[in-house]
Specification:
mainly beta, 4-stranded antiparallel sheet, 10 strands, single chain, 109 residues, 6-stranded antiparallel sheet
Amino acid sequence: MIIDFDKIDFEKKTEFLGGQKNFFVRSYKDDMNNIMSDRLEPGASIGYHKHEMGSEIIYIIKGSGKVLYDNKEEAVKEGQCHYCPKGHFHSLINNSESDLYFFAVVTNQ
């Protein structure tokens, strides 16, 4: 199965999960996963939240930022992957002056 994100429109989410500014997402969902191609504008963030149902994997495609993971701050950049297992907390923050592009998979189990 091929998912062509270029054929899926971005959905704008403002202050997503209590975060700052705008988060843009192109998403494919089924019963098992939410597969996303995303962008955070400069100064934007995804709010700090707990993964109750499953885990999340975030791969940074372009740009840099920081992750808050279980109350610890970690820098993240292009080519790196952040993993948030089920039961843990995290947030992604674009603290740079350029857009942050990333690919994410959230499991539903």
